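[step 3/7] fold_predict: job queued, chain A
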Amino acid sequence: MAGGLLANWKTVPNLLSALRIIMVPIFIVLFYKEHLGWAVFVLFLSGLSDSLDGKIARRFNQISDLGKILDPLADKLTQISIAVMLFIFFRSSSVTEMVWFSWIFIVFLAKEALMVIISVIMLCLGLRPGAAEIYGKVATFVFYGVMLLIIGFGPEIGAFSEHFTLPTLLMQILVVISALLTIIAFFSYVPDTVRQFRERSAKKNQGVNK
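[step 4/7] structure written:
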C-alpha cells in the first residue's frame, strides 16, 4: 500500500501541496506577530497554489495517490489555522458584537476537524476519502476570498484598512455565506462516505457468512 501511495510522487502538484502545508505555520506566526500584510501575502500564495495544483495535475496527467491525500490535507490545515486565528482575534475584541461574531468561525473549524477525523478513520479501514466535489471547490474558493478580504480590509483587523475598510455588516454577511457553503460542502461528502462504509460492511458480512 505504501508503494502505491508513493508511486509517481515526484510531481509539481505534490510540491505545491507540500508548500501549502509549510505555509501554514508561516501564516500563523505572521498573523500572531501582527505582520498582517505578509500574512495576507502568504494566504494569497496558498490560495493561488491551491487553484493551480489541480489544474496542473489534470493538464499534465500528474494525478497521484499521494496528491489525493496531500491536497485536501493542505486545505484542511490552512482552513483550520485561519479559523482558529480569526476566532482568537475577534474573541478578544473590545466590541461585543465582534465577540459574538467570533463564534461563527467555529463552523469552519468543526467542519474541517470532522473531515480530518473521518478521513483518518477511513484510511485506517482501507477506504479512500472522497475527492473534492464542485461544492467543496466552490466553498474553498469562497473561503479563501472572504478570509483574504477580512485580513486585508476587515474592521479592527485589516492590514490595509487605512485605504479601505470593509463595512462590518458586509463582512458578517460574507462570512455567513462562506459558512453556509462550508456546511453544504460537508454534506456533499456524506453520500460517498456512507456508500463506502456500507460496501465495506457488506463485504465483511459476506466473508463471515462463507
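[step 5/7] annotate
The longest helix spans residues 65-91.
The two ends are 26 Å apart (CA to CA).
exit 0
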